[in-house]
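for the recovery benchmark. tokens below, seq after
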């Protein structure tokens, strides 16, 4: 621990609370931005009335705030009650001046033609054009928001950003030093019952020797030593598992850098009882040994079958 950090602790001082106020053009990706910030560890609040913002961020000792928040992201836009660019900028000045807050205004922008196409494709109504063409609503909103854009701490144009690129950019700007790392779940499953919907990566281990056809092993599972020994004797297991674990050790940091908060690795076999369970258990241990936050789940290994 450096001397400055130690001094802050000794003096009872806390680091400023990161606060991101998300605003910008409707359809430019504010909801996505709020979700990314939530995944990064922020307390995310959508469409908060302006008069409640100062109360939410009130110092703990003034009797208004219930508790100190670690990091806050608030979406404030034209849907918000009493919203106005001038009132917004005026209202956040006292907050920006506080030493206990690290406040930033993020403005999300987008090309007018792209916004028009997004509204046309989704058939959504622009909030300022309920009875007019969407282009009128976009033009009106841009006029209302111009002052806010000019005074924002950061402007991100989402016109040509794919979602992974957008997440990565948000992560670069707003990641918390103590933010949660990507959580990895390894799940075993039975192909008879279908693929896990949440799976990001799926591996089929039905090529391995099947303990189901060994009478003494059939009632056991991949969590039992005799089943594990049987699977390991298969000449295909060693090279396969070494390649699989090595590949995932290489891939996981790349997924984390892309801004993923959760990654599910699914391992399947015919019944979801023997081979997939054993491989999932081994894989969980291997990834854990490499410092990843990993948990294991056996979807089709029910209690009554153990």
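predicted aa per position
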């Amino acid at each position: 621990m450096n001397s400055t950090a130690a001094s802050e602790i000794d003096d009872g001082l806390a680091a400023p609370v990161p606060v991101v106020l998300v605003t910008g053009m409707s359809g430019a990706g504010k909801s996505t931005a709020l979700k990314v910030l939530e995944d990064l560890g922020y307390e995310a609040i959508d469409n908060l009335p302006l008069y409640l913002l100062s109360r939410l961020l009130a110092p703990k000792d003034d009797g208004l705030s219930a508790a100190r928040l670690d990091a806050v992201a608030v979406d404030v836009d034209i849907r918000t009650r009493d919203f106005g660019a001038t009132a917004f900028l005026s209202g956040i000045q006292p907050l920006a001046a506080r030493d206990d807050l690290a406040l930033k205004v993020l403005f999300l922008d987008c090309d007018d033609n792209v916004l028009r196409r997004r509204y046309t494709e989704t058939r959504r109504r622009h909030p300022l054009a309920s009875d007019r063409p969407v282009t009128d609503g976009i033009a009106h909103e841009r006029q209302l928001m111009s002052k806010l854009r000019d005074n924002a701490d950061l402007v991100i144009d989402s016109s040509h950003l794919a979602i992974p690129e957008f997440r990565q950019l948000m992560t670069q700007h707003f990641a918390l030093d103590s933010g949660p790392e990507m959580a990895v779940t390894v799940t075993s499953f039975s192909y008879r019952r279908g693929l896990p919907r949440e799976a990001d990566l799926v591996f089929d281990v039905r090529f391995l020797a099947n303990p189901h056809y060994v009478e003494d092993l059939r009632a056991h599972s991949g969590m039992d030593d005799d089943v594990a020994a049987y699977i390991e004797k298969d000449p295909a297991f060693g090279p396969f598992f070494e390649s699989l674990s090595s590949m995932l050790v290489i891939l996981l940091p790349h997924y984390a850098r892309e801004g993923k908060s959760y990654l599910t690795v699914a391992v399947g076999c015919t019944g979801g009882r023997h081979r997939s369970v054993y491989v999932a258990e081994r894989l969980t241990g291997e990834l854990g040994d490499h410092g990843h936050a990993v948990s294991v789940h056996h979807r089709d290994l029910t209690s009554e079958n153990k």
